[in-house]
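Data card: per-record layout.
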Amino acid sequence: MIGSNSAVNIADAYLKGIRGYDIETLYEAIKKNATTSVGRPKSAEGKTISAVGREGVEYYNRLGYVPYDVGIKENAARSLEYAYADFTIARLAEALGKKDDAAMFRARAQNYRKLFDPTVGWMRGRNQDGTFQTPFNPLKWGDAFTEGNSMHYSWSVFQDVRGLIDLMGGDRAFVAKIDQVFDSPPKFDESYYGQVIHEIREMQIVNMGNYAHGNQPIQHMIYLYDYAGAPWKTQWHVRNVMRRLYAAQPDGYPGDEDNGQTSAWYVFSALGFYPVTPGANQYVIGSPLFRRSELALENGKRFVVEAPGNSAANVYIQSATLNGRKLDRTWISQDEIMAGGTLRFVMGPTPNKAWATGPAAAPYSMSQRVAR
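The structure for this 372-residue chain is written out next.
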């Protein structure tokens, strides 16, 4: 939403094997964005254009976050997104043989930890002196965040969900924390904006607690159950959102369609998987909507997703195979898709809590699983 996410697009494309451009020049550009504010373009009035480069980059690189008290709006959201972009830059630097850069950006990708306040259990704006912003209300929209609140942005650790799980107290606590977003009433604090913005009203209308699918920052949260050993919850929520919030009619979108993101969420989710972490070359499994889908790939191969027993009631995965071999994990890779073949799901009306729930079944995270 607010970070320097061109780095994500460039790194993800290169890591997925897309070529035909000058990657060295692009790399230098994204590295400059992430290291200095020098050279950022200015408007006709002489003001720096905040949408280009990283606002507050010197603060971020020195402290590990953009401070709340230096006059930079949406500082916590920026910090979280910068940390994720740093992860993708690290991955690209590693692929290009730039070991020193890779180590630097890999370390910065852990900066999300500096905004997590264990006393409240949420991400929170932080001042230059290290103190957290006060007063704090996790339901306050805007301010330290962008078109959302702390309950929405605390999940913006795409690169290290396992690390976030451990900060929140382990698998059970993490699952309960996601549940809390859905179970909380759709209350809000709009004081930063001085009015109820449309994103807030859309959250109220969909009536899914504080889950605001009508705006982008929280759309991936449903898939995070997979990382904590509760994939059946991902399966139920994915199908519920597709059923309730999308329709082939004029009001068939639940909110913003920024750059095609809301449609992309639906298309991927209908196929049965979603790219939670571009740059990791994995897709996290949800619950396929159709009995059969077929992708005609650019390399001439075809990737088929089959769920012959699928129905409105049969939303839960009972078992899965990839090209006839048992699949007991909640992700598939870019390479597996591009190789062509068939991903087959056996669906049912009740959760199979034994499928893909082991420690090795979770998608990629920078941190290793901690035994509890």
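Known properties of this structure: The mean pLDDT is 96. The two ends are 34 Å apart (CA to CA).

See the next section for split statistics.
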